[in-house]
């Protein structure tokens, strides 16, 4: 993007610099299913994307190292995956080759999906990435544009309540309404998270034309995760670490009802 902000550039540079170490630490946990969040139940249990992805055209937003995209491709989906990190995409392409999986990987900022045609996909999703995106309204409008009528959009990110509390005593460390970027100085660069309230996420989805059907906060599995330095099990057992949103792009009433029944979306 020509108008890339300093925050977006910082996140891109950080992911390029940290990708090798990140994949060394987390690849095994990310492989084999869609991981919606630390210690979350797998997609095969949650069925966020429906009962089956066989033959579906699916877009992954901010795919990172490609583990989810590759898994869905091996399950029979036609998958396109977008990310802004060249280093993460190099890992994703190598991983896809190792699994003989066919995935179209594109290097792009998810705030601009102009390389994709209108109505190209039945499902779009993002697993724990959209909190790094600065202009979420623009991103949601782009997702709505590339989805077909009746299409599903699902994404997960840190619970707003998790972001405002510290582990010790679950004390409040910042205002729930403080929307200033959360900047972390890390060894490989700077990471920027964009805190949003539940109302902010919901309004951004509805303003983009989506109908929100579910807001899920699954209880964590009783085992520690490789992100325990940030998401220790002791904390996420007490306060949700992950929120999963599911929404539909409106379609004519009959088509919408048929699609809901076909995917088991009640």
Looking at this protein, list some descriptive labels.
266 residues; alpha/beta; Rossmann fold; two-stranded antiparallel sheet; 22% strand
Task: Give the helix/strand class.
Answer: alpha/beta
**CATH C-level label:** Alpha Beta
Q: Structurally, how many domains make up the residues?
A: 1
Oligomer: single chain
Largest sheet: 7 strands, mixed
Question: Helicity, in percent?
Answer: 25-40%
- Alpha plus pi helix count: 9
Roughly how many Å is the radius of gyration?
18 Å
User: Distance N terminus to C terminus?
Assistant: 39 Å
CATH architecture: 3-Layer(aba) Sandwich
* SSE topology string: HHEHEHEEHEHEEHEHEH
- What would the average pLDDT be, to the nearest integer? 93
pLDDT under 50 segments (min length 5)? none
Let me know the number of strands. 9
- Biggest sheet strand order reads 3-2-1-4-5-9-8
Q: Name the overall outline.
A: globular
**Percentage of residues in strands:** 15-25%
Give the CATH topology.
Answer: Rossmann fold
CATH superfamily: Vaccinia Virus protein VP39
Provide structural commentary.
This protein has 266 residues and is an alpha/beta fold. It has one domain (6-263): Vaccinia Virus protein VP39 (Rossmann fold), CATH 3.40.50.150. It has helices at 6-30, 43-46, 67-74, 86-98, 136-146, 160-163, 198-207, 233-236, 253-263; strands spanning 57-61, 78-83, 103-107, 121-127, 147-158, 182-186, 189-193, 211-216, 242-248. Strands 3-2-1-4-5-9-8 form a 7-stranded mixed beta sheet, sandwiched between helices. A two-stranded antiparallel sheet has the order 6-7. α1 packs parallel to α4 (86-98). It starts with 5 loop residues before the first helix and ends with a helix. The mean pLDDT is 93.
């Amino acid at each position: 993007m020509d108008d890339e902000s300093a925050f977006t550039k910082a996140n891109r540079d950080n992911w390029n610099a940290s990708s090798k170490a990140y994949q060394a630490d987390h690849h095994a946990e990310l492989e084999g299913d869609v991981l919606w969040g630390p210690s979350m139940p797998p997609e095969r249990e949650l069925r966020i994307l429906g009962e089956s992805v066989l033959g579906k055209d699916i877009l992954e937003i901010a795919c990172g190292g490609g583990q989810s995209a590759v898994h869905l491709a091996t399950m029979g989906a036609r998958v396109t995956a977008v990310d802004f990190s060249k280093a993460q995409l190099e890992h994703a392409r190598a991983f896809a080759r190792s699994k003989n999986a066919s995935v179209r990987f594109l290097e792009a900022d998810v705030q601009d999906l102009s390389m994709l045609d209108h109505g190209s996909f039945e499902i779009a999703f993002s697993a724990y990435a959209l909190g790094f995106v600065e202009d979420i309204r623009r991103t949601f409008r782009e997702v709505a544009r590339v989805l077909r009528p009746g299409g599903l959009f699902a994404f997960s990110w840190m619970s707003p309540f998790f972001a405002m509390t510290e582990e010790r005593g679950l004390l409040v460390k910042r205002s729930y309404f403080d929307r200033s970027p959360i900047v972390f100085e890390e060894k490989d660069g700077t990471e920027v998270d964009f805190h949003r309230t539940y109302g902010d996420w919901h309004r951004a989805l509805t303003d983009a034309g989506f109908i929100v059907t579910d807001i899920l906060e699954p209880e964590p599995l009783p085992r520690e995760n490789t992100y325990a330095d940030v998401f220790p099990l002791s904390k996420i057992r007490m306060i949700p670490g992950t929120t999963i949103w599911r929404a539909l792009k409106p379609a004519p009433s009959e088509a919408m009802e048929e699609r809901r029944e076909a995917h088991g979306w009640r």
